[in-house]
Write a structure and sequence with these properties.
- The complex is a heterodimer.
- By secondary structure, chain A is mainly alpha-helical.
- Chain A has 19 helices and five strands.
- Chain A folds into three domains: 250 residues, no CATH class; 79 residues, no CATH class; 124 residues, Up-down Bundle (Four Helix Bundle (Hemerythrin (Met), subunit A)), CATH 1.20.120.
- In chain A, 72% of the residues lie in helices and 3% in strands.
- The radius of gyration of chain A is 40 Å and the shape is elongated.
- The two termini of chain A are 28 Å apart.
- Chain B contains ten helices and 13 strands.
- Chain B is an alpha/beta fold.
- Chain B folds into two domains: 218 residues, P-loop containing nucleotide triphosphate hydrolases (Rossmann fold), CATH 3.40.50.300; 71 residues, Lrp/AsnC effector binding domain/regulation of amino acid metabolism (RAM) domain (Alpha-Beta Plaits, 2-Layer Sandwich), CATH 3.30.70.920.
- In chain B, the strands form three sheets. Chain B has a six-stranded mixed sheet, with helices on both faces. In chain B, strands 11-12-10-13 form a four-stranded antiparallel sheet, sandwiched between helices. Chain B has a three-stranded antiparallel sheet with strand order 2-1-4, with helices on one face.
- The chains are: A mainly alpha, B alpha/beta.
- At the A-B interface, helix 1 and helix 13 of A face helix 2 and helix 3 of B.
Chain lengths: 508, 330
């Protein structure tokens, strides 16, 4: 038993001493990732780059105030050089696009100035030449949001104008109500001649016609009853005038005038309400209020300091990816180097077994992993401000251990099937590439089909990223399934490596 | 585990090892006794390393049987393997570890406890004269030092039986001599050694030698036995005063122990080669015979030991066709 432990220890000491002798490797493993993350934090601007945009306006409209206003509105998201990249025809703008002087050309047609008079929607064209699907989506998204904003701007302006017109309408209503009040007094005083004069004045002022016309133009549906009443009032005024001239009873007409005054009063109140509404509310009556339940305070404010938020979010993922890659590469090179160097022949003659060799190497790299992760986490916490909850220390240690042995298993499996160290490096890089795409490092694994998601779960780093983030950012323990997955990967890869390595170890 | 008294330490019986359709070792048989230095000599590619690997259990014979320390090496357990020491042909320790760390690794590999290894490593580094280089990286020491480190690593667990595959290949004659001194010291400690070499003159350091060619065993004999086989008998080198040569030849040619006399072309004046059955018996008698004639001034008398290179060439020429098979009767 003791001799077996001593044999296992042989590899512990040997591997650790060999790594200790490579200061560049240690620097690469510890300082490298820290410097990369620091550089990311210092250099990341937290937003997509602004697109260099050329604007094509209708000929002769370069200095149009409408164009100036337009440029002002879109310059938040598009980079426009008003001296060089405002064009009055499409061809030079497209040439600039093809020469890579521009990322995007936006063409505003002449019809845009007359859109309300023609009543037809106008196309604003966005021309670009881009292969990158992410940038293509970005440009299309920006185009969509820009048009949305322009439409809202135009609507805002129209609403403002309408509210001004409602003000005029209320003046007419006020005039009309004064004259109707006067008319009612004259009728009650049986001052027929004066009343007829007021009716003439009311007709000639055209206030009622203007009220009806304004309401029709503004399309206020809820005032349609009032509009009908106004039309019937026109007729009632005619009848009243005739009745006054004939000297008949005026009781019915007085009732009509009272009713009309009430309607005009309602109309005035409605107009007042419409006028009081903020045009911005009319244009965008709904707003989104997102409520994130995750405790993300420790990440920092993403709007004020996006770089810090991104660094803190990605640091646990980088740690997981780095740990897996480091372990896969070290283990991947380990056995194949023993074979290439000829040490395996010495092992075969000795009492060493394949099992002891593997366990010894597992132990040495696990110790190395513990040291490197400890130093890295200290740098990340104290250097980059990444949160770490001491209550999660045991979970963190267990996850690190499981991630390490699962990654080592994959590395040893690679090492047992390849015949040269360059092949081992090649396969390790393939595992890294696969991890970058499928582990959730950049793209959520939910973006993939279910069978690909299961393949992704076969990578230790997939569980490492999700659960390091959970532990470090959310103060939440990993699910049991995490350990089952990692344990399964570790066990299967160990058994396969052991089986294959034992066959190589066997006497021939 | 020890071979029983009277039993061979290693026994090969008609061992053949085939890779693909080629017999790398064919029909080799020998017995190696405890406490001897057994040399395997032959040109590069003659099957020496494969034979060593068969004896260490790295290879399993295609046919025939191998017994080492009384067991088939293929069935060795860990404690059996602790009895073996192995120094491979190439340096297979770790260049990025220092001499001491390599020794510690070798000790751990054989399960030597931490308490025992320290003294043992000190002794061995002293033995192979690497004490001053213990903190030097193995990759930074010379080829000869690497070979000595490999030897020390093979001895760290105090094996009973040591296999040494071409320990002197590519190193200078002085260092080669030192290696053989160390092997002799190990033998004096009671160890058994199997040593392969391409250098024919090194067979002189062995107790017995197997000569191999093209995967076949040509013969097994002691170094003296090889010499006798090459020369046909023992040879004495006798030199008298040039003027006395005629008288001396006359006396010796009549002597019953003398099988023949030759006068080499380039030999000094008065020299002759005298062939006898047994040099140790004949030498005093022939000296007495020469002294019986007071006129003869005997200048030099001794056994003639030609270089083993010459012996080997002669043997090869004799054994050229057909290849003979000789099995040790030890």
């Amino acid at each position: 038993m003791l001799k077996n432990l001593v044999r296992i220890f042989a590899f512990c000491a040997k591997e650790l001493n060999a790594i200790r002798r490579q200061p560049l490797l240690l620097v690469g493993l510890i300082i490298g990732p820290f410097l990369i993350l620091s550089l990311f934090g210092v250099g990341y601007q937290g937003e997509q780059p602004k697109l260099r945009t050329g604007i094509v306006v209708p000929p002769g409209h370069r200095d149009d105030p409408q164009v100036t206003e337009l440029l002002k509105r879109i310059s938040n998201t598009f980079l426009i050089d008003p001296e060089r990249h405002i064009y009055e025809s499409e061809a030079p703008a497209v040439a600039a696009l093809e020469n890579d002087e521009l990322d995007l050309v936006e063409v505003f047609p002449l019809e845009m100035t007359t859109v309300y008079s023609t009543g037809k929607a106008v196309d604003i064209r966005f021309i670009y030449s881009e292969v990158d699907p992410l940038l293509r989506s970005w440009i299309e998204y920006l185009s969509y949001t820009q048009i949305n904003e322009l439409n809202k701007g135009m609507l805002f302006s129209v609403v403002g104008q309408s509210q001004q017109q409602i003000g005029t309408l209320r003046d007419y209503v006020s005039d009309a109500r004064q004259q109707i009040s006067q008319l009612r007094e004259q009728l009650s005083g049986n001052k027929r001649a004066e009343a007829r004069q007021t009716i003439r004045s009311l007709r000639e002022s055209g206030a009622l016609q203007l009220i009806a016309l304004s309401m029709t133009q503004n399309g206020a549906s809820e005032t349609s009853t009032s509009t009908q009443s106004l039309s019937s009032l026109q007729a009632s005024l005619d009848t009243l005038d005739r009745d006054l001239a004939a000297g008949g009873s005026l009781e019915k007409q007085e009732q009509q005038l009272t009713e009309l005054d009430t309607r005009l009063s309602e109309l005035d109140q409605q107009a007042d309400r419409v006028q009081a509404i903020d045009p911005a509310v009319v244009v965008s009556p709904l707003r989104s209020v997102a409520n994130n339940l995750a405790p993300i305070e420790s990440l920092g404010d993403i709007t004020k300091d996006p770089a810090t938020a991104y660094v803190r979010f990605y640091t646990p993922a980088v740690l997981a990816l780095l740990l897996q890659h480091m372990m896969v590469t070290l283990a991947g090179l380990s056995l194949v180097r023993e074979m290439q160097q000829g040490s395996l022949e010495m092992f075969r003659v000795s009492p060493l077994s394949a099992f002891q060799t593997l366990i010894g190497k597992y132990a040495s790299y696990t110790i190395l992993s513990a040291v490197i992760v400890s130093v890295l986490v200290a740098l990340m916490v104290f250097g980059l401000g990444v949160p770490f909850y001491t209550g999660q220390l045991l979970n963190f240690a267990l996850l690190t251990f499981m991630l390490t042995i699962a990654s080592l298993g994959i590395g040893f499996f690679i090492s047992s099937v390849v015949s040269t160290d360059s092949q081992a490096v090649q396969f390790s890089m393939l595992v890294l590439l696969m991890s970058v795409f499928f582990s959730g490092f950049f793209i959520s694994i939910k973006s993939f089909l279910p069978f690909v998601q299961n393949i992704a779960r076969g990578l230790p780093v997939t569980h490492g990223i999700a659960n390091y983030q959970q532990i470090m950012l959310l103060n939440r323990a990993p699910e049991t399934s995490t350990y089952i997955w990692l344990g399964g990967i570790a066990l299967v890869s160990f058994l396969l490596s052991w089986l294959i390595f034992s066959r190589q170890f066997q006497r021939k | 585990m020890q071979a029983h008294a009277g039993q061979s330490l290693i026994q090969l019986q008609q061992v053949t090892k085939r890779f693909g359709d080629r017999d790398v070792v064919r029909d080799v048989s020998w017995n190696i006794q405890p406490g001897e230095i057994f040399g395997i000599v032959g040109p590069s590619g003659c099957g020496k390393t494969t034979t060593v690997r068969l004896m260490t259990g790295v290879y399993i014979p295609t046919s025939g049987s191998v017994s080492v320390l009384g067991k088939d090496p293929a069935t060795f357990n860990a404690s059996d393997r602790e009895q073996l020491g192995y120094m491979p042909q190439l340096f297979v320790l770790y260049p990025n570890l220092n001499v001491l760390e390599n020794m510690r690794f070798a000790a751990s590999m054989y399960g030597v406890s931490l308490t025992k290894r320290r003294k043992r490593i000190d002794e061995l580094l002293d033995f192979v004269e690497l004490d001053q280089a213990r903190k030097t990286l193995a990759g930074n020491i010379s080829g000869g030092m690497q070979r000595r480190l490999q030897l020390a690593a093979a001895l760290v667990h105090e094996p009973e039986l040591l296999f040494v595959d071409e320990p002197t290949a590519g190193i200078d004659p002085v260092l080669r001599g030192r290696f053989w001194d160390q092997f002799q010291e190990l033998k004096a400690m009671g160890k058994s050694l199997v040593v392969t070499t391409q250098y024919v003159n090194e067979v002189a350091y062995c107790d017995r030698v197997a000569v191999m060619r093209d995967g076949q065993l040509l013969l097994v004999d002691t170094p003296d036995g090889l010499r006798r086989r090459a020369l046909g008998s023992d040879v004495l080198n006798i030199r008298v005063d040039a003027e006395d040569l005629r008288n001396a030849v006359r006396i010796l040619s009549r002597h019953q122990l003398v099988l023949g006399i030759e006068r080499p072309h380039n030999a000094p004046l008065g020299s002759m080669m005298v062939y006898v059955d047994d040099a140790s018996t004949a030498l005093p008698e022939l000296i007495a015979a020469l002294n019986s004639d007071p006129t003869i001034d005997t200048r030099q008398v001794g056994e003639y030991n030609p270089p083993f290179d010459d012996i080997f060439i002669t043997l090869m020429e004799r054994l050229e066709t057909p290849v003979s098979k000789e099995h040790s009767n030890a």
